[in-house]
Design a protein that fits this description.
Elements: E1 7-10, E2 20-23, H1 25-47, E3 53-55, H2 56-63, H3 65-73, E4 80-81, E5 89-92, H4 93-102, H5 108-114
Antiparallel strand pairs: 1-2, 3-5, 4-5
Helix pairs in contact: 1-4, 2-3
Length: about 120
């Protein structure tokens, strides 16, 4: 840790701000907590304790219709159809939870700004 209380990380992707990113102690704590939560979710899915998929209506209730629709339209979230015509849509639980948690991470806006062309 630096004397300023900021942590330095290096990333392999090219960012307009350079590859060095400063994180405050709170940002680092948020990053670690999010990683732990996602790891626990992955373990529960792998053990079969939680279903790996949810239907579209469950995703709408849990994350909000407009947010889920925006993620689908932007290509961040890919729903799968069980069959043809009126078949139900399925969404991978880990994928949607990851996308939702990304919004709270300190690097999200910085990364999203660096990927715009």
């Amino acid at each position: 840790m630096r004397a300023s209380g900021l942590h330095t990380f290096f990333f392999p992707f090219n960012m307009t701000y350079g590859n060095e990113i400063q994180l405050s102690h709170n940002d680092l704590q948020t990053l670690i907590e999010t990683a732990a939560e996602l790891g626990a979710l992955k373990a529960l899915i792998d053990l079969g304790t939680i279903k790996p998929y949810m239907n579209k209506s469950e995703a709408f209730r849990r994350y909000g219709r407009s947010r889920v629709t925006a993620w689908i339209n932007k290509g961040l979230l890919l729903p799968y159809k069980d069959g043809t015509d009126s078949a139900a849509w399925r969404i991978e639980r880990f994928e949607i939870e990851l996308i939702d948690k990304l919004r709270y991470l300190p690097l999200y806006k910085l990364f999203m700004n660096s990927t715009k062309h």
